[in-house]
Design goal:
Blueprint (H helix, E strand, L loop, with lengths): L2 H23 L4 H21 L2 H10 L7 H11 L1 H5 L2 H10 L6 H12 L20 H9 L2 E6 L5 H10 L7 E6 L9 E2 L9 H16 L5 E6 L3 E2 L1 H8 L8 E4 L1 E2 L7 E2 L5 E4 H10 L13 H11 L3 E2 L16 H6 L4 H6 L17 E2 L4 H13 L34
Parallel strand pairs: 1-2, 1-4, 2-3, 6-10
Antiparallel strand pairs: 4-9, 5-11, 6-9, 7-8
The protein binds 2-acetamido-2-deoxy-beta-D-glucopyranose (3 copies).
């Protein structure tokens, strides 16, 4: 294969992912939605028949969807989202009207549409309260020790919903958080990079983003992470993972794809974290177009090739039980499967799925649109099961115990 093809393959990957996103969350035709709803109901039956755990899981990740009974779903959502819902007269009236009756497909449909895309600006979770017996001192201790600066790639058109949801949810727990766009906005605030919007310029956005960090913030952190504005980050788990890594190692971490570069590269949407040494190398040599493509191609793949040429290594970021921590899809997709075909070719760990393939200390998920961001916030940080106290697990694979990534991957660029 030649160079053109490699670039194309990477690009197709990201483009497909984008299409999946659109199809799922915004423009799903009604018929397809009905089929999806029926599919989910079938899954619900399996879950109930099988495991007691099933209910918890479906509740955890599907919230007010169809898997739990519609009534329970309404009650929960009402209690929780009182403010958010109060001015949505139509949906509320519909829910009231249905009373104790079963919902029709059309009701489900309307509710699904309501909970999917339409995030509003009234969301205030402000959930910094602690419950009796809670103790977050270990997490706070790590936040003092592990300095990670995160930049969120956003754009003027997604600033008001996606970037705002990041800022209002997990962004609250990030100590150093920057938003990079193609336009300055003093009030948000965002930093405007000298770049045009559009998929074909994502590579430039990433290159300029990390350049900005190197030029302006290099001394302020040990780790530097890039995420999209539909990435959800569990900050405590990120810091736990980084706490046993060495920022002086030329390494970077993320959701590992085993293609394009000999050592593979990381998915852009799953987020990737550079060590200080990796950013130093990027800052010193990353402007050389022979080493790093400055624009065009698929952003994550190009950045991966750049890292490889700078001697920055990919790492197996799974936990001690081989479970994934960075994710390029949402939790539902990683639990249920239903991956697009390209994923099995790309994922370095063979496209595993299911509860047991995901680390208890998962770090990122992708395709988390604003309303889902708020849901995750609720399930991870607000809700708890009475009488269940959870302890600490040791799930890190520190560098000394780790098998290095073998550069065995097919590299279409390399002439043999
Ligand atoms: C800048 O951000 C503020 C606050 O999010 C927003 O109200 C305003 O419309 C933004 N300005 C532009 C030009 O996008
Ligand atoms: C912005 O980018 C363009 C094209 O890459 C370049 O010609 C221009 O000098 C840049 N402007 C600044 C302020 O860096
Ligand atoms: C990462 O480690 C797990 C076990 O800890 C192993 O199953 C998996 O194959 C490794 N992945 C790669 C790409 O080496």
């Amino acid at each position: 294969m030649h160079a053109g093809h490699a670039g194309h393959a990477g690009h197709a990957g990201r483009a497909d992912r984008q299409r999946l996103d659109l199809r799922r969350h915004q423009e799903t035709p009604i018929l397809l939605r009905l089929v999806m709803a029926m599919w989910r109901n079938a899954l619900a039956a399996q879950f109930c028949a099988g495991l007691a755990l099933g209910l918890t899981v479906s509740f955890l990740f599907f919230g007010n969807n169809h898997i739990i009974s519609s009534r329970a779903g309404i009650r929960l959502t009402r209690n929780y989202d009182t403010d958010e819902i109060s001015h949505r007269g139509d949906v509320r009236k519909m829910a009231m009207h249905s009373g104790n009756d079963e919902w029709s497909e059309a009701d489900h449909e309307a509710w699904d549409r309501h909970s999917d895309g339409q995030s509003d600006n009234s969301f205030l979770i402000n959930d910094h309260h602690m419950h009796e017996g809670d103790d977050d001192s270990a997490a706070r201790e790590l936040a003092k020790k592990v300095k990670v600066m995160i930049w969120v790639m956003t754009s003027p058109s997604t600033l008001h919903d996606r970037a705002k949801a990041v800022r209002d949810t997990w962004g609250q727990r990030a100590e150093q958080l920057l938003f990079f766009s193609s336009a300055h906005n003093k009030t948000f605030p965002t930093i405007g990079l000298n770049v045009s919007e559009g998929r074909e310029h994502l590579t430039a956005k990433t290159m300029l983003g990390f350049r900005y960090l190197y030029d302006n913030h290099f001394d302020e952190a040990d780790w530097f992470m890039k995420v999209d504005d539909d990435t959800y980050v569990i900050m405590e788990n990120l810091r736990y993972f980084l706490s046993e890594e060495n920022p002086k190692d030329p390494v970077y971490f993320g959701h590992h794809f085993g293609l394009i570069a000999a050592q593979g590269y990381y998915s852009g949407g799953g987020g990737y974290v550079l060590s200080k040494e990796a950013l130093r190398r990027f800052g010193q040599k990353g402007q050389d177009p022979m080493l790093c493509k400055q624009d065009g191609g698929a952003e994550d793949a190009e950045f991966g090739k750049c890292m490889e040429r700078l001697g920055v290594k990919t790492v197996n970021t799974t936990d001690t039980l081989g479970r994934s921590r960075f994710h390029c899809f949402d939790p539902e997709t990683h639990i249920m499967g239903g991956y697009p075909p390209w994923y099995f070719k790309y994922d370095a760990n063979g496209g595993k799925k299911g509860l047991h393939s995901i680390s208890d200390y998962a770090i990122t998920f992708h395709y988390i649109y604003p309303s889902k961001m708020k849901r995750l916030e609720f399930y991870i940080y607000h809700m708890a099961a009475y009488g269940v106290k959870r302890g600490f697990q040791h799930l890190n694979n520190p560098p000394k115990d780790r098998v290095p990534i073998k550069p065995i991957y097919r590299d279409p660029l390399k002439k043999t």
